[in-house]
Design brief:
The complex is a heterodimer of chains A (about 350) and B (about 550). Chain A has about 350 residues and is mostly helical. Chain A has helices spanning about 1-20, 25-55, 85-100, 100-105, 125-140, 155-160, 175-190, 195-200, 200-225, 230-240, 255-270, 275-285, 310-325, 335-340; strands spanning about 105-110, 115-120. Chain A folds into two domains: about 1-285, Fumarate Reductase Cytochrome B subunit (Up-down Bundle); about 315-340, no CATH class. The chains are: A mainly alpha (about 350), B mainly alpha (about 550). At the A-B interface, helix 2, strand 1, strand 2, helix 8 and helix 9 of A face helix 1, helix 3, helix 4, helix 6 and helix 7 of B.
Chain lengths: ~350, ~550
């Protein structure tokens, strides 16, 4: 049970943070030491991974063209799907990264008696992915409030928009709900869709459960256990963390340490997991190369010195046949052979 | 190899308890062993072909021997595992694509039902994501920190003989068509993964004959078919006779002629067997009508490159003949005939591997004066680009009614569509020469389905597999056949011309297969022609 294990792992982490933070002296570990360590691992690991990728060259231009390439002037060039210039590549990548353009293309195939195969547009994965990623982004950006003093005005606008429905007190953020929803949808999809059910690994369920737990603990903290935590102390700690002068004032509340510990786990886990698709999406050679490989030579730094089976060797083997067939040759047949 | 009756297979693909039809395997995919039995694998390469290739400078095809996939013992070298892991490490350092594709997959499943092999077989390991996981599981185990810590939980597997056998099975159930890479949010290209798997397998002497024999033929004789120079010339001249009989015009041709303006290279299959022969006749009729100053070469008599299906070294070695011959003959540039993977190599590899071709000139059409800027560096123009430009400038006269026996549909070949973006040039040409319709939208252009037998899988011993993997393509053809009376499937790919013919014979016997230039020549009014009524175009028997 790959998904059950993910739950167990996350529950164990919750318990560690909950119980651990109650031990005197431990809040410093959970509130200061682990966050620094996790961030260090995240940044160091992320950079390390990207550098490792970048160290390997792109020997061949292997762009995947998803539209008409640039050729004759009367043939309409699809500049986004078969980009010919760097600007066009940037536009293609922008749409890929920001709108998940490839997922938008997704289809679902079914096979009926006949046989008759159908391909229907299927935008669920695209929709779930958008909900999840943009909610996550908004939540992360909103958290900047904790690290910035004074809070910049654009951040208050974002908070205003995110809470525009003004439901409950304190007001519910839309993205809090949609992030949890996104986790649930993506997780359920893995179980319900027969293809993903077969291919999913523990490492596919685990991040979803972890992020769900992070979001859920955050929601509990904000909307339910608000009286258990001391927001002033939290801000003092978080601002202290970014200014390298962390202090933990009065007791903050276990739910905060649970939330923070799970975030630390996510940060530390990130560089060593599939979550690195955040960086990899920019480096994929099938998407980020120009389709001008016949117009401009692409260089392979390790191009091996290989020569063809030579023409001379070819002619030597077949010269008699070639001469007989009237095919021009570089070297005529040896005269003594002719005589014989 | 008995191929199941149409009825049986038609029912099996729908009702068979497979992942494609809705049955979910009860066991983890890692616990499903591969079983080789007659009919589900392509024959291994003959020892003498492997030995020959290994003896060629720059190539490495070790461990030549007689062996069978059905045997328990594949006679691998003693240190086979070390060779594989070291080979993988080397390739991770050489190809960023491999590293990214190993690391970034989130197993979202977008690719799962995009693969024609999966749709036709329902085998979970034919989902592109699992095909890659076959390698990824070993990669994680040996090359990642998370894998070393989490082991099996992170989906890691020890490299074993069973895994190696699995690699062989599934890297030869992928035609490197790249349809999955269109749908992947990270552009992960299974073709790259399959190429790496095949490269690694060759390191321990595991390869198939249908690929390695053409590679060794092409190295020695200049073409996959193994036609020696005089035979190649005979074959082409035979087609010249046919064109003359049909049109009253005898194409003027030459071989290995120094000082010609253009070198013309096309897959040797075009001068070897139907229906490619008619396409080759089409080239010659077209060039004759223009009075083009071009030459064939017997040394570079192969456009295709089965080296692409083995490893990048073999690909480079075979491809290098094109420029070498162009240089020797002193031509200005090269025109390439209709072929799919040939154009993948030309468009995405040739200049990088064997360029710069600074001894050639930027291609200019001698008829229209058009400069082919898109080929400014490789100096090689696709026949469809060349023809479309001629039509645009009104340099060709057509009588479309000469194709009135044809109702065509258009098959975009994987490589020209997804590795080149050659989509509308052929359509522009079709509009001028024949009555034609498109297949359903999710089966054409960048979403086109492979013929099911590319990358050297067009061998008869795996016919059932080919008919299954070709089903998505055949099914789309059937749709337009039933709806619009389509009777001809046109394409710009020599492998297609061979494989789609088998596929149509099986699934849609009323539909024939042709090259684009055959249709062009059917409708072409050649100056000085003396043409009988050709009710089947170039295929008419007089």
């Amino acid at each position: 049970m790959k998904y059950a294990f993910s739950f167990l792992a996350v529950i164990a982490m919750v318990l560690i943070a909950w119980l651990g933070s109650q031990i005197p002296g431990m809040p410093y570990l959970f509130g200061v030491a682990l966050p620094y360590l996790a961030l260090l691992i995240f940044l160091g690991g992320f950079i390390y991974r990207v550098v490792q990728w970048a160290k390997s060259p792109v020997p061949f231009p292997i762009q995947t063209t998803c539209g008409q390439g640039k050729s004759l002037d009367f043939i309409k060039h699809n500049r986004l799907e078969a980009p010919n210039t760097t600007a066009e590549v940037v536009a293609r990548m922008f749409l890929e990264v920001v709108t998940f353009r490839s997922l938008f293309r997704n289809t679902k195939s079914e096979i009926y008696s006949g046989p008759h195969i159908t391909y229907e547009s299927s935008k669920w994965l695209w929709l779930f992915a958008l909900i999840f990623h943009y909610s996550f982004l908004a939540v992360v950006v909103r958290h900047l409030r904790l690290f910035l003093d004074p809070v910049p005005v654009w951040l208050t606008w974002l908070e205003f928009l995110d809470g525009i429905f003004q439901v409950g007190a304190p007001g519910w953020y839309i993205t809090d709900v949609t992030l949890i929803l996104g986790c649930v949808l993506l997780f359920s999809r893995r179980l319900v869709n027969r293809h993903t059910r077969v291919i999913s690994l523990m490492t596919d369920y685990f991040p979803l459960v972890l992020i769900f737990a992070i979001a859920f603990s955050g929601v509990l903290m904000r909307y339910l256990f608000r009286s258990d935590i001391d927001i002033v102390n939290i801000k003092q700690l978080t601002v202290g963390l970014v200014t390298f002068s962390p202090t933990i004032g009065a007791e903050i509340g276990a739910i905060f340490y649970i939330h923070l510990f799970l975030v630390c786990v996510l940060l530390a886990y990130f560089p060593f997991s599939k979550l690195m698709h955040l960086g990899g999406v920019f480096l994929s050679p099938t998407r980020n190369l120009r389709n001008n490989s016949r117009a401009v030579r692409h260089i392979n730094p390790w191009n091996p010195p290989i020569t063809p089976h030579s023409y001379a060797g070819y002619e030597d083997e077949f010269r008699t046949f070639m001469v007989d067939a009237g095919i021009p040759v570089e070297k005529e047949l040896a005269p003594d052979k002719d005589a014989a | 190899m008995s191929v199941p009756k149409l009825q049986q297979l038609a029912e099996s693909v729908v009702q068979g308890p497979t992942l494609a039809t809705g049955a979910i395997p009860t066991r983890e995919w890692t616990e499903l062993p591969v079983v080789f039995k007659s009919g589900n694998y392509a024959y291994p390469a003959k020892a003498e072909k492997v030995a020959y290739l290994d003896s060629q400078s720059g190539l490495h095809f070790p461990n030549s021997r007689e062996w069978s996939p059905e045997d328990e013992d594949w006679k691998l070298p003693e240190n086979w595992k070390e060779i594989i892991i070291k080979g993988l490490a080397e390739r991770l350092d050489k190809f960023r694509s491999l590293k990214i594709f190993m690391d970034c997959c989130v197993r979202c499943g977008a690719c799962a039902d995009k693969c024609h092999f999966f749709l036709g077989t329902g085998d979970p390991k034919n989902m592109p994501v699992l095909r890659a996981e076959l390698l990824r599981s070993v990669y994680r185990n040996d090359f990642t920190l998370a894998g070393k810590i989490l082991g099996k939980m992170a989906g890691c597997r020890e490299m074993t003989v069973a895994v190696l056998k699995e690699w062989f099975m599934y890297s030869y159930q992928c035609t490197e068509c790249r349809r999955c890479s269109v749908f992947c949010p990270y552009g992960i290209d299974t073709a790259e993964v399959t190429m790496m798997l095949r490269e690694l397998l060759h390191l321990v002497g595991v390869g198939i004959n249908w690929i390695l024999e053409p590679v060794s033929n092409s190295n020695r004789t200049g073409n996959h078919m193994g036609l020696q120079p005089h035979t190649f010339k005979d074959n082409v001249e035979f087609l010249v006779d046919d064109v003359e009989n049909l049109t009253g015009v005898r194409p003027n041709i030459s071989f290995n002629r120094k000082g010609a303006e253009i070198l013309f290279i096309t897959p040797s299959a075009d001068v070897f067997a139907e229906p490619g022969l008619y396409t080759a006749m089409g080239y010659m009729a077209l060039f004759e009508s223009l009075g083009l100053d071009y030459t064939w070469s017997t040394y570079a008599s192969e456009g295709g490159n089965f080296g692409l299906f083995t490893n990048n070294e073999a690909m480079k070695k075979l491809n290098a003949k094109m420029y070498a011959e162009a240089k020797r003959l002193g031509v200005k540039y090269i025109i390439g005939g209709e072929c799919g993977h040939m154009w993948r190599v030309i468009h995405q590899y040739m200049d990088t591997m064997n360029g710069p071709a600074d001894f050639l000139e930027v291609p200019v059409s001698p008829i229209t004066g058009t400069v082919f800027d898109n080929a400014a560096s490789t100096k090689m123009v696709h026949i469809s680009e060349f023809t479309a430009d001629l039509i645009r400038h009104g340099k060709l006269k057509f009588d479309k009614s000469r194709n009135s026996h044809v109702k065509a549909t258009w098959h975009d070949s994987c490589n020209t569509a997804r590795a080149m973006g050659l989509l509308d040039e052929p359509r522009y040409i079709l509009d001028h020469v024949v009555d034609w319709v498109e297949m359903p939208e999710n089966t054409i252009r960048e979403q086109t389905f492979c013929c099911g037998s590319g990358t050297g899988l067009n061998t008869d011993e795996i016919m059932e597999l080919r008919m299954r993997s070709g089903l998505p393509r055949a099914n789309a053809v059937k749709y337009v056949h039933d709806k619009h009376g389509v009777n001809m499937l046109a394409c710009v790919c020599a492998i297609d011309r061979a494989t789609l013919t088998s596929l149509m014979n099986y699934w849609n016997p009323d539909v024939r297969v042709c090259g684009l230039t055959e249709l062009v020549a059917n409708a072409l009014i050649i100056p000085g022609e003396n043409r009988a009524e050709l009710d089947d175009g170039l295929r008419t028997l007089l």
